[in-house]
Amino acid sequence: SDAWTNAETVTIELSASDNLSGVDATYHRVGDGAVGTGTSVTLQDEGEHAVTFWSTGRAGNAEQARTVQVR
Question: What is the pTM of this model?
Answer without folding.
Answer: 0.86
